[in-house]
Each structure stands twice: as structure tokens, then as C-alpha cells.
UniProtKB/TrEMBL annotation:
It comes from Rhodococcus parequi. Keywords: Amino-acid biosynthesis, Histidine biosynthesis, Hydrolase, Methionine biosynthesis, Multifunctional enzyme, NADP, One-carbon metabolism, Oxidoreductase, Purine biosynthesis. The keyword Amino-acid biosynthesis applies. It comes from the Bacteria. CDD domains: NAD_bind_m-THF_DH_Cyclohyd. This is Bifunctional protein FolD. Gene3D superfamilies: Leucine Dehydrogenase, chain A, domain 1, NAD(P)-binding Rossmann-like Domain. It holds the Pfam family THF_DHG_CYH_C.
Amino acid sequence: MTATILDGKATRDEIFEDLEARVAALKEKGITPGLGTILVGDDPGSAAYVRGKHSDCAKVGITSIRRDLPADITQEELEATIDELNANPECTGYIVQLPLPKHLDENAALERIDPDKDADGLHPVNLGRLVLGKEAPLPCTPRGIVHLLRRYEVPIAGAHVAVVGRGVTVGRPIGLLLTRRTENATVTLCHTGTRDLAAQVRQADIVIAAAGVPGLVTADMIKPGAAVLDVGVSRTADGLRGDVADDVREVAGFVSPNPGGVGPLTRAFLLSNVVERAEQLAGLSD
Ligand SMILES: Nc1nc(=O)c2c([nH]1)NC[C@@H]1CN(c3ccc(C(=O)N[C@@H](CCC(=O)O)C(=O)O)cc3)C=[N+]21
């Protein structure tokens, strides 16, 4: 058996087409959505991610606002830039690219973002709204995962999901999305303290690997026919590697590749959050 590939790039292109039309409608009403990025330092990986986000903006007609700051900036200078984007009417949503250099306080920076401009959906107020089931910008990677599962009609209701990794961007919030009444999955959150990871993963109809440990999820752990989404990103001597071993696709029913799977959707839903906020401002949504 060879797994069906969950194609993140093709799915991203569909989302971009929809966003392009919505951005055009907003512009007719005199509103142009604007995505801001704050990048601190010169890590080549982070710089590449930020470039990717701005080239996505150009594709769908969103204004790009870039603030690139030197690595040795103070917390006060970083927060002054955050305040500037909070007040900047051209910027309808923005992100502070993570990770920040070690001398800066990441949580203090994230909390200073205006929750209404939080394109990542990672502000504590928005994570709290997600827990309460209130409307809020949703974290982009979990949103991408749910979209990809729906797009390929992977059954979610009643499914047993094993999430591997308890990070704030994926592992913790994805369970909140998948256990909403609209999804109705049953979710187990696994981490480095899990006693028998293989036994947990083997029970799962859907496996979400977001630990950042190359090759952690192997074929012998997979229930035949399961959907396996590889969300891990590790920089190794032989390039970027995901959490899922290559031979998993011989056992799984669905596999999201890495690259080419969830990553492109993370970027698409970042733009989607920015467009949704602009639509609220324009009175085009509830
Ligand atoms: N505030 C903040 N928000 C983030 O969303 C955020 C962040 N900081 N820091 C770093 C991580 C990483 N991340 C990725 C997004 C897309 C791809 C992606 O599109 N990857 C392509 C390959 C690379 C490419 O083609 O450009 C793929 O998987 O096919 C990867 C990684 C977002 N992050």
C-alpha cells in the first residue's frame, strides 16, 4: 500500500486564489490588508521564512510591512517597534518572527502585540479565546492541519489522534481545534515523558508529528491506513528533516510530506488571518 499524498502546495494555491478575490473585494471598499513582520538578527533560516511570507503577500495583493532589526537591539527598542505596528493603520496584522535572540524576553514581546493584530493567533488572549470557543485568529499551523485533513476527506469525527510534541505553536493548540464539536476527534498529547510512545501512536487514526526530532515516528508505530502529518522541522547536516521516517508511507493511508505539506499552509493561514481582520474592519464579516 502506498499512501495518498496530502499536497500542501496544491492546497495552498487554492487558498491563495480565494484570498486574492477577497483582497480585491476589500480594495474596492478602500481597504488594503497589510501584513507586518518583525525580524531580529540575521539567522539565515528566519530571514528565508520572512522573505517567503512577503513573497506570498505580493501574490495575493496584501501590502508588506517589514521591520528588520539588528541582533543586539534592546527589549525597549523591540517593544517600540511593536508599539509602532500596533498604531500603524496600514498594518492589519503582524508577527514577531521566532525565535528571538536569547537576551530578549519572547513572552513579553508577544503579549505586547495588539490581540486584534495577532496574525499568528499565539497571543495569550487569543489562545484563551480558543480555549473558551470564542471567535479569535486561530494559530496558523493547526488551522493548516485541519484544513488539509478536510480537503482530502480524512475522517476526523470519532477518530483517535495522537499528537507528538507539546510546543505552543502546534502540539498544544491542535488538540483544541480537533476536539471542537465541528471536528469531534479524540486527542492524546504525547511528549518526552510519555511512557510508551509507540503504543500511543499505534492506536491512532491520525498522527501529528510536531516534536522536532528527526525520524522519531517510524513505520512500525503506524496503524495501517492511518493519516500521518509531518510537521517537525530540524536542521541537520544533510538539510531540513521532518519527524517522520520515509518508509511510513508504505504503511500509512495518507501522508503529508515535509517539505510540501503543512508548511505552505502555515503561510497561507497567516495571510488568511490578516485578510479576515481586514474584512472585520470593513464590515464584510460578522
Ligand atoms: N512568529 C512566528 N510565526 C511562525 O509561523 C513561525 C515562526 N515565528 N518561526 C519559525 C516557524 C517556522 N515556520 C514555517 C512556515 C512555513 C514553512 C514552509 O512553508 N516550508 C516549506 C519549505 C520552505 C519553502 O518552500 O519556503 C514547506 O514545508 O514546503 C516552514 C516553516 C513558521 N514559523
